[in-house]
Design goal:
Elements (H helix, E strand, L loop, with lengths): L10 H7 L1 H41 L4 E6 L2 H15 L8 E7 L14 E7 L1 H4 L12 H14 L4 E7 L3 E8 L3 H4 L4 H15 L7 E6 L2 H23 L3 E2 L5 H11 L5 E6 L6 E6 L5
Parallel strand pairs: 5-6
Antiparallel strand pairs: 1-3, 2-3, 4-5, 7-9, 8-9
Helix pairs in contact: 5-7, 8-9
């Protein structure tokens, strides 16, 4: 505040009190009063800014779930499944996993056993991402064009149809002899599906699932995997020990996990690193 702007509030009273000295006293009192008012206004402004900061903290929502299971991998899977119930579009690549408890098997007869606990937390940058900046979503037309081009270059006589579903973008290949396209244990068509997902999704953060099938191979393979899961679950229960399956793709491991999820006899977990990651089926601990 400029001191030249300070004037006596009552000129007549100033003249009556007499002289410049009294005017200076009055100016000093006014200046002290104004500075005090400014200080109070600054405090009020600080309170308002603090309130705004609190409101901002409330608006930034954190999504996190905790999973508990016999192993860290199983707890991680359960935590991710729980997070996807809150945020269905959550991608595992955008999730931070925090191991809260490693777990232990305990002593004799499982006494003192502690389950592993893992927290799945969606990274803040993911929750506020703007999907509009990523361009149009993957289309069935783009998938059909790419898969048809690959099939033609392989010299396979086949037709490709593609369509959208709520869960994925799917391509169906039909023809007379598609064994070369499917490959041993589906390795070739799995590779085609993997490359198709990269091409169709591009560099989008929110990726859609891409499925490439040939003459109903996926459905037949799913039936085979479920039958395998039932046999291995029975073996793990009968022998009271863990059974490790052969390495599988993430999609095939998911079929095993989902099929045995509600089985009261066994629990499943994925162990190892790609491409040797495999499902391990273990008997559940009985609580007497």
């Amino acid at each position: 505040m400029d001191g030249s702007e300070l004037q006596p509030t009552d000129d007549a009273a100033a003249d009556f009190l007499g002289g410049p000295e009294n005017e200076r006293l009055d100016d000093d009192r006014d200046l002290d009063h104004d500075l005090k008012d400014e200080g109070e206004n600054d405090d009020d402004l600080g309170d308002e800014e603090a309130d705004e900061d609190d409101e901002g903290d409330d608006e930034e929502e954190t999504h996190a779930t905790i999973g508990s299971a016999a192993t860290v991998e199983a707890a991680k899977r359960l935590a991710l499944e729980g997070l996807r119930k809150i945020v269905p579009s959550a991608d595992e690549a955008d999730v931070e996993f925090i191991v809260l408890e490693e777990g232990s098997k305990g002593g004799l007869f499982g006494r003192g056993k502690v389950e592993a606990q893992v927290e799945a937390r969606l990274r803040p940058a993911t929750s506020v991402a703007e999907p509009a900046d990523e361009g149009p979503p993957p289309s069935a037309g783009a998938l059909r064009e790419f898969v048809q081009g690959v099939v033609d270059r392989m010299g396979v006589e086949a037709a490709v149809e593609a369509y959208d579903t709520p869960e994925a973008v799917r391509a169906e290949i039909s023809g007379d002899d598609l064994g070369i396209l499917i490959g041993r244990h589906g390795t070739t068509i799995d590779a085609l599906q993997y490359i198709s997902a990269i091409v169709v999704n591009g560099d989008r953060r929110h990726r859609r699932q891409v499925v490439v099938d040939a003459e109903g191979y996926r459905a037949r393979r799913e039936v085979s995997l479920k039958a395998l899961a039932d046999r291995m679950a029975q073996k793990a229960t009968r022998e009271a020990g863990s059974v490790q399956l052969k390495p599988m793709t993430a999609a095939e491991r998911k079929v095993i996990h989902l099929h045995l999820r509600d089985d009261p006899r066994v629990a499943t977990a994925s162990e190892g690193n790609e491409p040797f990651r495999a499902v391990v089926i273990s008997p559940r601990q009985r609580h007497d």
